[in-house]
């Protein structure tokens, strides 16, 4: 049973929800796997969960926050014996302003390149992050035309607090919450796929590179991650395609760069994931100006 406290979805690239789940006593766990283009902040308020991020496992305790960069595959395993309460905030990459002398999104880059996916409880409690997440909740309960403006301002404050915390975490290596020491085949597979998105991602090629059979690789990946390897590869390719299109590259050249023999396959995969046809930023801008009366 899921009790939704607040749920909000904006057309401007902001998603927020605060919910509490209580599972039947005979439930073992609940898993889901996803990868998306948005930045994600997950705050655990109560319960016990294990996060799998790109094949690395993190045990998350109440009053700890998980930072998930765009396009990183992540799934969650829940201890069903306890009520599971969380706040989750997603926001689009272009929501934050850019500065010449400051990378406001640096905490996500740090999380991707180190083990700083978790904000420990002691760091969270000595910051205003918790208050800011509740502030987001209050904004989402409003029905004002300024709701997204207020949310964007609060998210900017959240990023300011995260930048300060991450700098403290990185400067004291002993504070970094390293992944649980589980050496998984899926982690090696994910690493290989992400390094070869514009190269050969054929199943046999990956299996040979990892010295396993194709059947064992597919079985292990589905069991550990929760989705098929084929679906993961397609998703990651489409996320990269979105980036290339937004840089102005044509859809046909993106399809070729990602190794698609038939453009129709690329077209259908992109439309299925994003709900729109693959169009370059240049094409979007051209259509925009054609519709403006001068």
List keywords for this structure.
294 residues; alpha+beta; Jelly Rolls; Arc Repressor Mutant, subunit A; 2 domains; six-stranded antiparallel beta sheet; four-stranded antiparallel beta sheet; 11 helices; 19% strand; disordered C terminus
Give a brief rundown of this model.
This protein has 294 residues and is an alpha+beta fold. Helix content is 44%, strand content 19%.
Explain what this protein looks like in three dimensions:
With 294 residues, the protein is of the alpha+beta class. The protein folds into two domains: 2-175, Regulatory protein AraC (Jelly Rolls, Sandwich); 185-284, Arc Repressor Mutant, subunit A, CATH 1.10.10.60. It is 44% helix and 19% strand. The protein has eleven helices and ten strands. It has helices at 106-113, 121-125, 129-141, 147-171, 185-195, 203-209, 214-225, 229-246, 251-257, 263-274, 281-290; strands at residues 2-9, 14-21, 33-34, 39-46, 49-53, 56-60, 64-68, 74-78, 84-91, 118-119. The chain has a six-stranded antiparallel sheet with strand order 1-2-9-4-7-10. A hairpin with a 2-residue loop joins strand 5 and strand 6. Mean pLDDT is 84; it is low at 288-294.
Biggest sheet architecture: 6 strands, antiparallel
Written as H for each helix and E for each strand, in order along the chain, the element string is EEEEEEEEEHEHHHHHHHHHH
Shape: globular
What's the helix count?
Answer: 11
Class computed from helices, strands and strand pairing: alpha+beta
CATH superfamily of the largest domain: Regulatory protein AraC
Mean pLDDT: 84
CATH class of the largest domain: Mainly Beta
| Total strand segments | 10
Helix share, percent: 40-55%
The proportion of strand residues reads 15-25%
